[in-house]
Amino acid sequence: MELAFKKKEVSLEFEKLSTQKRYDRIAIYTMLVPYSTLFIMFIAVPVLIAIILSFTYFNTVQRPKFVGLENYIAILTQDEVFLKHVLPNTIKFSLIVGPCGYILQFLLAWILAQIPKWPRTFFALIFYSPSLTSGVAMSVIWRVIFAGDQFGYLNNLLLSLNIIEKPIQWLQNPDYLMNIMVIVALWGSMGIGFLAMLGGILNIDPELYEAAYIDGIKNRFQEIIYVTVPSMRPQMLFGAVMAIVNAFSSATIGVDLTGSNPTPQYAGQLMVNHIEDYGFLRYDMGYAAALSVLLLLLIYGFSKLANKMFASND
Fold it and tell me: pTM of this prediction?
């Protein structure tokens, strides 16, 4: 009799736990519904449509016509602008702005973490503020600096110092345009990845540093290598992914600076500009969609590489 009573009590306890688990799961799925809905509407569906359109010829007037891999073959074998200018420019721009911006974010975040709270907040806001402004707003400031007449700040300075004899068309000269784009992109690269790194450094347990010095660490460089970086791998990974995405997607800088698409002699022409050229100027949406898919694959490949470098094995 007593045994049967205990079995019934255990059974009721299991039933109570399973009911609680069901409620917890329902609550979790309910909270995920808004995010899932927005993700499907604004990310998954557009990506799926772009992939489908990349196999078609679509001029926005007639119905899409299936052409198989024709767009991809044309991009990789016949598109002279893409092969000679767009792809090399995109790789060069991304390899400079991505890693350099990432290292700059970490160094500035580490330096700010060493100073008191109020000056740290002040300087963090200053470094972060360029990323809050739009690309057009940033370009307006830099277009004044690099203006091609004698009233441009840089030309005026160089003329007053007798370094140059006549104003230089900085933004229309293919020799200077890419370098200026890199400077502008680095200036605005202190975005959400920079804040994540700063938060990661500030949240490291100080006892880890004390233990590391007891174990033989001798200077601040070793402190960064053996304690700081391993302790903030999630923030480093997030910063790396954001740097990669920003490096590939901030490509409108060249058009904003020069005011034309394509840029002079394609010197600042990147993949996003090429997509806009075909999608919104030539209305060849199928070709533009194929370019978008290739850009997506590039970003995905570099993100996987960053994930291998910084993802925790725990």
Answer: 0.73
